[in-house]
Amino acid sequence: MKILLTNDDGYKAPGILAMAKELVKSHQVFLVAPKVEHSGMSHSITIRKPLEIRKETLEGLDIPCYSVQGTPADCVRVGLDYILEEDVDLVVSGCNLGYNAGMDILYSGTVSACAEANLFQKPAMAVSAQMYKKFDADFLKGAQVAMEILEKVKEDLVQEVITLNVNIPYAMGNPKEPVVCSLGEPIYDRYEKDQVDSGSFQLKLVGRNKGRFAEGTDRYYLEKGHTTMTPVRYDFANKVLENQWEKIWEN
């Protein structure tokens, strides 16, 4: 397959390098990723300044590689519309440093790159590996597990415009078998308040509140050491709600 590879950690990040090295074993890969890290950028795009695109080289990889001075969503639209001269079968985003599970996908630049691919009617796969120590993850294992999943589901995945959201736990380098599951609930962040002066204060992100995870969700299975796969369709239409509100308006 022809695959556009991107991420939100930057084109030099170890996660995307590990993913690229696995993908090129069986597929034609084009790498288009942010110049610098854009984690937590969600589906934002650059509108106030020009996008700078630069051809890059990566040690140990003989593939077309471009950096974009923009967001992950920018990278996908630039790659599909302005860089690649041939059509791609799939967009892959990752391997991300840290999970993108539950409702965190709404904040994730990694997953939102896939959402942008879906807007271009391209199927996509988001890959994220657990951060098991400060700012590190087993990207090699994460990429290998993701590759195994891709090879098994690729014929079905490319038939639908969806995002397959994959999270791989560290699990001492031996994650349990993948499971298909639903998105988990949100986890709320915890901030530390610092009074600057009488009229202002700062909030510093210091951690996350702990939660209990519903059975059958990605967070539930990740806690038990399973790789998770969650198919996501970006379709905000809701005919039931539409009919309900039509009656509300008419009455």
Summary tags:
251 residues; alpha/beta; nine-stranded mixed beta sheet; 6 helices; 28% helix
List the helices and strands and how they pair.
Layout: E1 2-6, H1 14-23, E2 28-34, E3 53-55, E4 65-68, H2 72-83, E5 90-97, H3 109-119, E6 124-129, H4 139-157, E7 163-168, E8 176-180, E9 189-197, E10 200-208, H5 218-223, E11 226-232, H6 239-250
Parallel strand pairs: 1-2, 1-5, 2-4, 5-6, 6-7, 8-11
Antiparallel strand pairs: 3-4, 7-11, 9-10
Helix pairs in contact: 1-4, 2-3
What does this structure look like?
There is one protein chain. With 251 residues, the protein is of the alpha/beta class. Helices cover 28% and strands 27% of the residues. The protein contains six helices and eleven strands. The strands form two sheets. A nine-stranded mixed sheet has the order 3-4-2-1-5-6-7-11-8, with helices on both faces. A two-stranded antiparallel ribbon has the order 9-10. Strand 1, helix 1 and strand 2 form a beta-alpha-beta unit. Helix 1 crosses helix 4. The protein is globular.
Task: Work out the helix count.
Answer: 6
- List the secondary-structure elements in sequence, H or E: EHEEEHEHEHEEEEHEH
Distance between the termini: 53 Å
User: Kindly state the mean pLDDT as a whole number?
Assistant: 96
Instruction: Give the spatial strand order of the biggest sheet.
Output: 3-4-2-1-5-6-7-11-8
Percentage beta strand = 25-35%
Low-confidence stretches: none
Principal-axes shape call = globular
Content-based structural category = alpha/beta
DSSP, total strands: 11
State the major sheet: 9 strands, mixed
Helicity level? 25-40%
Radius of gyration: 19 Å
